[in-house]
Automatic annotation (TrEMBL):
This is Histidine kinase/HSP90-like ATPase domain-containing protein. Keywords: Kinase, Serine/threonine-protein kinase, Transferase. It comes from Catellatospora bangladeshensis. It comes from the Bacteria. GO terms for molecular function: protein serine/threonine kinase activity. The lineage of its organism: Bacteria, Bacillati, Actinomycetota, Actinomycetes, Micromonosporales. Gene3D superfamilies: Histidine kinase-like ATPase, C-terminal domain.
Length: 133
């Protein structure tokens, strides 16, 4: 991981996931840690939504599990979803909302809309979501 992401980090916590039935517990984990770190409940739920989308994508596109980490940095809560780079990986900033009649493809665009900052780390195997407090 890029050393810049480690500076000033506190309240670190993590959970792994491997199957779809793990996701409900992980959503609660992200929301609860974000609220405990001082994020307003509505913003914590947006962070939970974004993290859930990334975790679902991990399971769908890698066929493997991953790791979710939550920590605080100065004025922000950070949630990282780490996996193996999925097929068709698109870096943050590349997501475009599909046409209204498209059945799929909104997830990454929604992630970028609801989070303050979306970035990658670890060579693209981790996506970090930042929400200011």
């Amino acid at each position: 991981m890029n050393a810049a992401y480690d500076t000033g980090r506190t309240m670190g916590d993590e959970m792994s996931f491997a199957v779809a039935t793990d996701l409900a517990g992980l959503r609660g984990f992200v929301r609860d840690r974000a609220v405990a770190a001082g994020l307003a409940t509505a913003r914590a739920e947006l962070l939970m939504l974004a993290a859930s989308e990334l975790m679902s994508n991990t399971l769908e596109h890698t066929g493997d599990g991953g790791l979710v980490r939550v920590w605080t940095e100065a004025g922000a809560v950070v949630c990282e979803v780490r996996d193996r780079r999925p097929r068709g990986f698109r870096p943050p900033g590349a997501a475009v909302m599909p046409a209204a009649d498209a059945m799929r493809g909104r997830g990454l665009a929604i992630v970028e809309q609801v989070c303050d900052v979306v970035s990658t780390a670890a060579g693209g195997t981790a996506v970090q979501l930042r929400m200011t407090r």
